[in-house]
Amino acid sequence: MLLFDLQLFAHHKGASSTSNGRDSNAQRLGTKMHAGQIAKPGNIIVRQRGTHLHPGLNVKIGKDDTLFATAEGRIAFERLGRDKRQVSVYPVED
């Protein structure tokens, strides 16, 4: 009489090796220009999600909450009340 010791293996890979193989790309958020730098119109100052920083003088906010300069000048980060911050661009006299 012959005895077979047959081991059957799974037909699919284990859950950890196949379901963990994805990751999203970095969003490259943050401050792109710093206080004291000279900004030209259209320069992106801050990329953010939500309004961590608010627009001030000569700064507008895009639909994805990006802050950008609308005039040439020097960048300044300022307080706006007790708990908010804003970014302004002040013209530089030569």
UniProtKB/TrEMBL annotation:
PROSITE patterns: RIBOSOMAL_L27
Record's keyword annotation contains Ribosomal protein: yes
Keyword rRNA-binding included in the entry's annotation: no
Keywords from the UniProt entry: Ribonucleoprotein, Ribosomal protein
One Gene Ontology biological process: translation
GO terms of molecular function: structural constituent of ribosome
Superkingdom per UniProt: Bacteria
GO cellular component, one term: cytosolic large ribosomal subunit
A Pfam short name: Ribosomal_L27
Similarity-based family: Belongs to the bacterial ribosomal protein bL27 family.
NCBIfam families referenced in this protein's UniProt entry, alphabetically: L27 (TIGR00062)
Name of the molecule in the record: Large ribosomal subunit protein bL27
Native organism: Dialister succinatiphilus YIT 11850
Protein encoded by which gene: rpmA
